[in-house]
Design goal:
Length: about 290
């Protein structure tokens, strides 16, 4: 098992900021948790890859990022969150969606998602989280994020994401890159980058040749001097816990909690991100009810 990782770099005298990641382990873990169909695994895997890189761009220990895609296709809504330690988790409305492959044999992610919107929520510990939403451009996710960065954050960017499945529907390759142009980027740099993006193979083809984020960045940034500025692990991780759920139950308030107790059954809550089950017995609920009164 190889460790998923994110490489960050600057290129062309810091005119370009770049990130690349390999994410096979986290996407396979996600697939196992949710027992998802290939097209949903691919959609969640692309979002996880983008989210881990976007999360790693945040500074504060408690900062949180949420990517949400809501479409009118059979997949419904897909949600991925990341923290600044590049720990990510995903959930979806529907895990068993099957749509015909595209004519080129690739999984039809946009067909599963349909038309809709991409929302990015950044919770940076301020009073209100920052939230930006754009209409989906293609539903292939990378192009939608590229559009989001330009339209909502005024940062010209290029996003590449890819997930390739094995014949047995396990994850074979996953990863991606994000390039961001600084405001002082020259026309020459922009032109060179555009040429590179035209000629590079897809993310999954690059990962098939070499499963190495640094090698991917060297191809995308070919012809520019590049300096690696960081390397970190990234992982699928759910931070749910019993105390956290207890706080949620307490926050329901006396009336709701009292109602649950009156039904006379223990309450079972499943975490939508990792599948963990938490059971609360009637005496435990009564204890929480007491707390909610304080
Ligand atoms: Zn969980």
């Amino acid at each position: 098992m190889t460790q998923d990782k994110i490489i960050s770099a600057v290129a062309a005298g810091a005119q370009v900021r770049a990130f690349a990641c390999t994410t096979r382990e986290m996407v396979e873990r996600c697939r196992q948790i949710h027992n998802s169909s290939p097209v949903i695994t691919a959609a969640m895997g692309r979002m996880l890859s983008a989210a881990c890189m976007m999360g790693s761009m945040m500074k504060g220990e408690r900062d949180r990022l949420t990517l949400q895609i809501a479409g009118d296709g059979p997949a419904g809504t897909l949600t991925v969150t990341a923290d600044s330690a590049a720990r990510v988790k995903a959930c979806a409305d529907q895990y068993q969606v099957i749509v015909p492959a595209k004519p080129n044999g690739k999984l039809d992610v946009s067909g599963a998602i349909g038309a809709g919107s991409l929302t990015v929520i950044r919770d940076l510990g301020l009073k209100e989280p920052y939230s930006g939403s754009v209409p989906l451009q293609t539903g292939e996710i990378a192009e939608d994020l590229t559009y989001y960065f330009a339209a909502s954050e005024q940062t010209p960017s290029s996003v590449g994401l890819g997930v390739l499945m094995n014949k047995d529907n396990t994850v074979r390759r996953a990863g991606g890159f994000i390039l961001q142009l600084m405001p002082f980027a020259s026309d020459e740099t922009i032109e060179l980058l555009e040429q590179n993006l035209q000629k590079i193979p897809s993310v999954t083809e690059m990962l098939e040749e070499q499963e190495d984020p640094e090698a991917m960045l060297r191809r995308v940034l070919e012809g520019m001097e590049m300096e690696i500025t960081g390397s970190r692990e990234t992982v699928y991780h759910c931070d749910c816990s019993r105390p956290r759920l207890e706080r949620v139950l307490v926050s329901l308030g006396e009336k709701e909690l009292g109602g649950l107790i009156a039904e006379g059954r223990e309450v079972e809550i499943g975490c939508q991100f990792c599948g963990s089950q938490y059971i609360f017995t009637i005496p435990q609920l009564q204890h929480l009810l007491k707390e909610s009164r304080h």
